[in-house]
Design brief:
This protein has 290 residues and is α/β, with parallel strands linked by helices. The protein has 10 helices and 10 strands. It is globular and about 65 Å long. Bound molecules: S-adenosylmethionine.
């Protein structure tokens, strides 16, 4: 199931306060950044999974059991992803946005296209972009200079991303042609081929890090395209604004920001970026003057 489709329920105020207090005071784990509905929902899931009859019983368990506190804390990170996850967004990237960026880049003589997948989880989003760019290069018969940076705060997920090995479940939107060209199959698993390896630079980066303005691996940001999808919705509004502000500052003039479908409203409400197309969560910073 796609977890982003069901990320809201109404928590009681006092339960939330107690969860946050217990996690912080008993275990030194800060969960205050998370969206309250998401926090309550995750709490309820673990309550049921541990067969705790009431919220009070599970809270007590959470307070006295560091292992359960870690499990609960980890459950707040959802690593779910898919290749070409939002088909409308990826169709627009393929047919409009990337060709536009690449043409502009060629015309301007500027060095390379810079892209950032922020909160990339196990890498499907970044590899999807790499596939589109490789297809473009192949169809044009011309080399293209581009760098794709992909970051997440979870080293474990990044290790899986780098390995490039995937089960069929996340490959549903990959075309047969792409499957043949960019994956090799071993039984149930599909591995990214050598052709794409080295095209994505995976590194750890916490978007909430206040000490840095862009992922250190990228050195200076200035991205033509940033995809940060299905990350914002797990955070409370103040934190969403902090992340969005960081992403916006990392955009080159005229650069594009892609969010998850469920986050479109959050980006629109924050202002500062223009929606590129109706019904698609793609936004653009102030375009270059022509
Ligand atoms: C649901 S996945 C989204 C994956 C991919 N962007 C997609 O849409 O398919 C959310 C990812 O965001 C990452 N994440 C959440 N908060 C983060 C933060 N503060 N800094 C970096 N990554 C974060 C999580 O570790 C998780 O891998």
């Amino acid at each position: 199931m796609n977890p982003e489709k069901s990320a809201s329920s109404r928590p009681t105020r006092s339960t939330l306060d107690e969860i946050m207090a217990v996690m912080c005071q008993a275990h030194g784990l800060d969960v205050t950044a998370y969206d309250e509905s998401f926090l309550a929902k995750s709490f309820e899931k673990r309550r049921r999974a541990t067969a705790s009859e009431t919220a009070a019983i599970y809270l007590q368990r959470l307070s006295g059991d560091p292992a359960e506190a870690k499990i609960f804390f980890r459950s707040l990170t959802i690593p779910y992803s898919e290749f070409f996850r939002d088909p409308l967004v990826f169709a627009l990237l393929e047919q409009v946005i990337l060709p536009r960026l690449l043409t502009e880049k060629e015309a301007s003589g500027r060095a390379e296209l810079r892209l950032w997948s922020a909160g990339c989880a196990t890498g499907q989003e970044a590899w999807s972009i790499a596939i589109l760019l490789d297809e473009w290069t192949t169809s044009r018969g011309k080399p293209l200079a581009y760098r794709i940076f992909a970051t997440d705060r979870s080293e474990a997920d990044l290790a899986r991303a780098r390995s490039g090995v995937y089960g069929a479940a996340t490959l549903g939107n990959v075309r047969l042609r792409q499957l043949k060209r960019y994956f090799s199959r071993q039984g149930e698993f599909y591995t990214i081929t050598a052709k794409l390896r080295g095209r994505v630079d995976f590194s750890v980066y916490d978007l909430l890090d206040r000490a840095s303005s862009s992922p250190p691996a990228s050195i200076y940001g200035d991205f033509d395209l940033v995809i940060c999808s299905n990350v914002l919705l797990y955070y409370r509004p103040q934190i969403q604004h902090f992340i969005l502000d960081k992403l916006r500052r990392n955009l080159a003039t005229g650069g594009y920001l892609v969010s998850g479908e469920a986050e479109r409203q959050i980006v629109e409400n924050a202002g500062g970026l223009g929606a590129v197309a109706p019904h698609a969560s793609i936004f653009q910073s102030t375009p270059r003057r022509r």
